[in-house]
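Q: Can I see a sequence and its folded structure?
A: Here is a first one.
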Amino acid sequence: MSTVVAAIDCGATSVRVCRIDLDARPLVPEVVHRVTHVPRRDVAGHLRWDWAHIFHSIVEGLDRCLELGPLASIGVDTWAVDYGLIDDRGDLLGDPFSYRDHRTDGYRRCVDEFGAAAMYRINGLQLQPFNTVFQLAVHPDDELERAARLLWLPELIAHALTGTSATERTSAGCSGLVDLSTGEWSPELCAVAGIDAGLLGEIETAGRILGDWKGVPVCLVGGHDTASAVAGMGPASADGSAFVASGTWMLAGIERRQPDTSEWARTRNFTNEAGAMGGTRFLRNVTGFWLLEQCRARWNEPSIDVLVDEAAGVLDDVPIVDVDHDSLRAPDDMLDAYCCLAGIRYDAAPGVVTRSIVESIAARTAEVVTQLAEVETFDDIVLFGGAARMSLLRERLAAWTGRPVRTGAAEATAIGNALVQGIALGVFDSLDAARHALVGDPAP
């Protein structure tokens, strides 16, 4: 009898629910349900996630999975840093804030008061305005005062399914609140956030069963979607592989046993994020195809495939911009903001703008890979995630880096989610063994 699991994979623009047969070789996810979602502005003008829509979509997807046959377990991953607050009855106090909300624009005040170097020595994270530590520092006091527990979004969904609270390592590790030297909450950074560490719960590693939903076990997996994606990228080459997880963000990095909180890493804004089953993902965030998704809305939603095909036919040079520029973080009109930054006419052909976006993303990602090569040795680059299917992106990333680019799974996040479920269920005895199942090979 096959071991089929459901992987709930929530990105910042869509909810996906997949069925994956862990006994199949190679593993191939079946996307059973996919629904888009966007944050909404509350009465105060802040961006919050539509929790009711997200959770309803998840349940709808799980019900469809069950209609197709029994499930051995369920796992949940989402994007990082965002969270929900629950009261002592387990009720959500308000829709979670979106990391793209401008309420954290003044985050540098926290950094300057504490000291950027001192903060990095503790948490080892890339400075981003949306890190949870900065979100909590400006969270409404009335919600914080009524909160009994903070749950990051993967564990908030698992709590809604099972009633069990947990704090998973990869979710916690992106908060900016963990002391890398101890693996526990930093009292100093909790003070910056203005919270008591008791609100956060005890940090634990993925790979156990939390509870059940409709009789189906719900497993604690690598809650941060990038952690799950890296778990699902497949075996590294003999001399090591860098990785690029592609999607809303491009995350370029390498797996390490230990974090690097050196001045070299800090000044280049590298981040140390927890691996799904241990170790560290040493990487840097680059703004990704969220740029193109936002521009599509002004072009009456042509498909990504059509836009990329048009872009591949653009033979003239196009402007290369800094895709991490502040003006592109959350503009009201992305097309206008991008064209202004690039010096492109607002009414330029979509293929021209798309080519500029792809080139700019590839160029910025290549900068990160080049910096990694200063301190790490690796053979090739594994490109996986939603944009891995774009031959134009693969070609341009190879051209900008001067390195071979190997394609991993487009649904790497859901696969990594499922592999960790397999470890919790005893199907695999290690992540290495689970990764080799992706290519149908036994682990060495």
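Q: Show me another, different protein.
A: A second, unrelated one:
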Amino acid sequence: MTKDQRRPARRHRLAPACLVAALIAGLALVPGLQASAADLSDLVRQALEERRARREGDALPRPGREEVARNWDAFLTAIIKRAGRDAPPGRLRDQLLGVLIEERHRIVAMLTDATVDGPELMSSMFESSWEQLAPLLQEVAAQLPHDTARRYGQFLEAGELMRAAERLGVARDLATSPESLRKLAAVLLGDEGEDPLHYDTAVDPELRRIFGFGDPIPPPMTSPLLGPLGRDPGAWRRTSSPLAALIDWLVPAAHASSQPASGDRSRLVARLNTWIPGKKQEVREYVPLVHDLLRLTVDDAIGPALVEANALAAQVYPDLVIATAWQESCWRQFVRGEDGVQPLVSPAGSVGLMQINGRVWRGLYDPAGLEGDIGYNGRAGAEILWHYLEDFALPAGEHLNEGGADNLARATYAAYNGGPGHLSRYRKPKTSPHLQTIDREFWRKYEAVRAGEQARMFSCYPTER
């Protein structure tokens, strides 16, 4: 190949750096953004140098999938929490939370795909999140005083720089850098407060308050079947508990002769937290008690004021909660495993009676409660269902389509199962066959619950005889 033949390829390799430099120069002209543009320009140059080093064979560390996922989740949460704080209560806050939950669902899905590496995960997440988030941030900024709105404008401009760099092939290195995410977050958040990449699984009361979930759910009553492991979320995956196995062997017979305590929620939770029925007769006693617990949970969730204000939602809600528990777990919070008693866990990490994913709902619910307490798990699931019903299905007018009020249950479950973006999938012909099957199975269960067909509700539970 001649020198002239090589020149076009060389010019093509240099083009990204030149275009990024031009973008940085343009952003530097925006009032108040000069420092941010300079900081980001250094990161862009660093990313280009790292790419060049890789081409030359230098071994540079690459961030792992889990590190990338946690960093992006923390960054996105910090930005959305700030925007939610600045936005007025109502539709805009619901949409902001919808973006966060939708993107967390995407993170879970991508982490289950072993073929997706860390940089690829970040590139995909940055693009999808930005497309949804940027218009909402612009809407928030339009309602704020000038100085605060200007910070939003600067953040959006800086984010567009990173997005342009990603499209030029740079952000696979730039956006995975914790330093670049911190500097981008600082444009909006400033330098005060906690690290925007701090990843914490504890309940965040402010996050719950901002997005309409109210005070945190009371602390869980962790099952003694899990023993001390219940105080360490995830520990049951690593080790066995002889004490839990002994209790599991003794408890079912003791409960078979005891009387229901459905009028006292705390006693009912304590009972169900120490019982994994194995025989058919035990299941026939156990399942109605789970129904009692869920009905009490529904009563706690929607008082008279909410029923009056949302009569249509309250009409479908009780049967929706029970049908969802049936669909998601067949009434089970715990199962017997090789290492003793464990929470029921899906391949994607969703746990317990209502199959709630702690990663998706991080900051809103206690992982130990989701894993170790059927009452806490049920209450969390009922709360999430009400959120999707009241804040998504009703405002979207799902009940105005053919099918009427029944559509509220179908749409709410679809969002519960797949995230806010799945709200209307039940009525779309192009929905995948797999999801269509899930939605059909849910609808059959919902109709059975509504009709009071008790006999069908025992069929899914695995029994000894």
